[in-house]
Structure to design on (454 residues):
């Protein structure tokens, strides 16, 4: 991060975000954490498959062993982000633990909303913090060099495709495809099988939905949200070319209802055999290769497509953060230590299948023979994608702050969401890409002007 922005400048920006959050009331989870039984905690988390598996395993394992009851509130991604930001900004203490990402962690830490975890990591030798993959650990480190969250799973992005369909129709996937090649393949395989589309790409509004894959495409096409001098670039030729490419690809060869399809919908399309390719999070591979998946064994995995860069995968982690207002930090850490441990991964592998392990965070996972055997199709490409992710220089232009599929400033959650609505509208055919980006440029320039004037 450029030090000219400094902590003081970003604190000012964060204060605007907090002020907005304070206007919203937050519904409780059933008892504040400061007044309940000391042997229970409230956890707010996203409803991704690995999290719902954790929810099912907690009572029979963690609670049985520790006596600590965990009250889960599980919500879709966009909803859970809103609820977490409201509760943590208010420091209401409704939830002791929440799933936050590497985007929120540094911002929340800067504002004093999170417990520092270093003391727990020093004392908990069994957790083995040194085993956590370096890119993931660095992404959860605050500006003060302290750790404020620990990963449940980590991910980058890659391209998934139906090997059996490609073979049947004489198509070959390059080892490192370009987006131009992917578009050509999507056209060839579209409708090759009854009811099958060429590719699935997120179109659902949300800075963590359509904006994530789109921004990785923008990066490799040579674009950026902001120059290093805080000039908004959403209507630049590079950003426009990338967005037009993305919108055209999903409109011409993508899934039906693309403007309302996010990660979950694309995962379902791939599992049900409704799409031949899917560009998205590496975390999706576990569900595709699960024992009950009808497409298991028929999926190939290659690095995220590129154009002008050597790599283009994003870096993301759903991690556990402890709210500073929680009066049960010690109990919260016990839960986190279990949920992110080697032992939990072994539990999932032995009970739910090794392809379901919440991977992407520990070196030992990728050295585990059982995991290697059951995740043979994707474990190496996933590990390599995470290792290659570069939040400092993800494209061809210098950036004012780190971030691959997001810009690490407090305003990005609101800006990204508003821009995503314009992009989704273009995907739905309600406006052109140029119209969507003209509106988006105005929104981005208002944010950039604040930073230019500091």
């Amino acid at each position: 991060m450029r030090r000219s922005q400094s902590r003081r400048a970003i604190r000012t920006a964060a204060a605007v975000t907090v002020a907005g959050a304070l206007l919203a009331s937050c519904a409780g989870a059933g008892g504040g954490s400061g007044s309940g039984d000391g042997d229970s905690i409230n956890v707010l988390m996203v409803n991704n498959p690995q999290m719902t598996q954790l929810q099912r395993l907690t009572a029979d394992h963690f609670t049985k062993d520790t006596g600590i009851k965990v009250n889960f509130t599980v919500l879709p991604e966009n909803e859970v982000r809103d609820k977490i930001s409201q509760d943590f900004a208010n420091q209401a203490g409704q939830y002791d633990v929440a799933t936050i990402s590497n985007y929120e962690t540094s911002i929340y830490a800067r504002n004093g909303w999170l417990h520092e975890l270093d003391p727990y990591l020093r004392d908990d030798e069994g957790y083995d913090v040194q085993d956590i993959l370096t890119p993931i650990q660095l992404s959860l480190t605050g500006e003060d060099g302290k750790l404020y969250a620990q990963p449940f799973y980590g991910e980058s992005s890659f391209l998934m495709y139906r090997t059996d369909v490609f073979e049947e129709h004489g198509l070959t996937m390059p080892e490192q495809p370009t987006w131009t090649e992917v578009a050509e393949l999507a056209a060839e395989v579209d409708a090759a099988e009854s009811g099958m589309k060429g590719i699935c790409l997120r179109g659902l509004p949300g800075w963590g939905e359509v904006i994530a894959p789109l921004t990785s495409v923008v990066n490799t096409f040579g674009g950026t949200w902001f120059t290093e001098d805080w000039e908004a670039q959403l209507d630049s030729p590079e950003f426009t070319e990338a967005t037009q490419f993305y919108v055209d690809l999903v409109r011409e060869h993508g899934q039906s209802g693309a403007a309302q399809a996010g990660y979950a919908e694309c995962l379902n399309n791939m599992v049900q055999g409704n799409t031949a390719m899917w560009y998205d999070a590496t975390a999706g591979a576990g569900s595709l290769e699960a024992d009950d998946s009808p497409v298991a064994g028929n999926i190939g995995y290659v690095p995220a497509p590129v154009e002008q860069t050597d790599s283009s995968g994003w870096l993301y982690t759903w991690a556990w953060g402890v709210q500073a207002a929680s009066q049960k930090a010690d109990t919260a850490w016990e839960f986190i230590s279990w949920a992110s441990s080697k032992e939990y991964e072994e539990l999932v592998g032995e009970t739910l299948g090794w392809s379901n392990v919440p991977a992407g965070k520990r070196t030992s996972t990728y050295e585990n023979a059982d995991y290697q055997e059951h995740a043979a199709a994707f474990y190496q490409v996933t590990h390599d994608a995470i290792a290659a992710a570069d939040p400092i220089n993800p494209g061809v232009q210098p950036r004012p702050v780190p971030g691959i599929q997001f810009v690490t400033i407090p305003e990005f959650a609101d800006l990204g969401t508003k821009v995503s609505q314009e992009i989704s509208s273009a995907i739905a055919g309600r406006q052109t890409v140029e119209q969507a980006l003209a509106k988006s440029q105005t929104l981005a320039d208002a944010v950039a002007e604040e930073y230019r004037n500091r």
